Amino acid sequence: MSKPHAPAPVPRPLLKQQSWSPDAIRDEAWQRRKGSHAAVGLCRSKSVSDDDLEELKACVELGLGFDPESSDVDPRLSDTIPALGFYCAVNKQYSNSLSRSSSSSSIVSDSDAAGSSNNNLFCPGDDAEMVKTRLKQWAQVVACAVRSSSR
């Protein structure tokens, strides 16, 4: 009698080589962002992440100009570059302060106007870490605005 044949071994799936490429870091960051946005759904919060600021800085460094004087930013562009609204608000305020005299009274009035606007950086219930993060982000956006206006 013939021997029963043993089933053929199941072939192992081919694994992709895990080599480093310059795109690997970007791809990993994209997957993280995609995953975090998928959990939130299609709604986007008004907060700006460090990744959003990096995208904005890269656009400014590439020479893309955004008109801070325009009253409304294209929503598709705003969805693509979430920090753009923040950038336009800061850049507009910076441009206004340059057009005025640089006396200390105008600086005080600028800070008063910023505190009374709807785009406050802080809310009364914010914890210290949130305040620190928002200040850091604000400083980065101001640096972008100054850099782009000096070109």
Can you count the beta strands? 0
Total helices: the number is 6
User: Are there runs of 5+ residues with pLDDT below 50, and where?
Assistant: 38-45, 103-118
Strand content: under 5%
SSE ordering: HHHHHH
Biased composition (Pro residues): 1-12
Region (Disordered): 1-36
Pfam families: DUF1685
Architecture overview:
The structure is a single chain. This protein is mainly α and 151 residues long. The chain has a domain of 103 residues. The chain is 58% helix and 0% strand. It contains 6 helices and no strands. Helix 2 packs parallel to helix 6 and helix 4 packs across helix 6. The longest helix is centred in the C-terminal third of the chain and has 22 residues. It is elongated, with a radius of gyration of 24 Å. Pfam families: DUF1685 (PF07939).
Outline of the structure:
The chain is mainly α. Helix content is 58%, strand content 0%.
Topology:
Blueprint: H1 22-40, H2 50-61, H3 75-80, H4 84-99, H5 104-116, H6 128-149
Quickly list its features.
151 residues, mainly alpha, 6 helices, 58% helix, DUF1685
